[in-house]
Design goal:
The chain is low in regular secondary structure. The chain has a domain of about 80 residues. The chain is about 15% helix and about 10% strand. The chain contains 3 helices and 4 strands. It has a 4-stranded antiparallel β-sheet. A hairpin with a 6-residue loop joins strand 1 and strand 2. The chain is globular and about 45 Å long. The termini are far apart. Bound molecules: zinc ion (3 copies). One zinc ion binds next to helix 1.
């Protein structure tokens, strides 16, 4: 809003109640990069607080990498279920067992492999 960048990110997607942007986003937040049946979440970014279907969407629409959602804000909404449009806290999403706690829609379990891109990692436990 107050930056002096010459290129402005594209407009937010008006189909969603939350600020959301991506590439070829469908009504359940699938995108050009992840379009499988269970790719129905959009994740909020720590740098811009905008939801994106995936990290590649963020890179394409903003021209830079996203920032993982900070642990200090894990009790704030950070994940949008594209099926029921519930906004889940990071904690609720990460503890959901790959299904929406609100509507039961299955989420892609493969997302866990990219968790560090979207959610700030826990510090390694000192006494494990
Ligand atoms: Zn961002
Ligand atoms: Zn994408
Ligand atoms: Zn849902």
């Amino acid at each position: 809003m107050s930056g002096r960048r010459t290129t402005r990110p594209p407009d937010l997607d008006p189909r969603f109640a939350v600020p959301l942007r991506g590439v070829e986003v469908d009504v359940q937040t699938r995108c050009a990069h992840y379009a499988g049946s269970t790719d129905v979440v959009a994740l909020r970014c720590g740098c811009c607080a905008t939801y994106h279907p995936c990290h590649r969407c963020h890179a394409e629409v903003t021209g830079r990498e996203g920032v993982p959602w900070p642990r200090a804000r894990f009790d704030e909404p950070a994940v949008l279920c594209g099926v029921c449009r519930a906004a889940l806290t990071a904690r609720a999403y990460l503890g959901s067992g790959h299904a929406c706690p609100a509507c039961g829609a299955a989420f892609n379990p493969g997302c866990a492999a990219h968790r560090g891109l979207y959610f700030e990692a826990e510090r390694p436990a000192a006494d494990r």
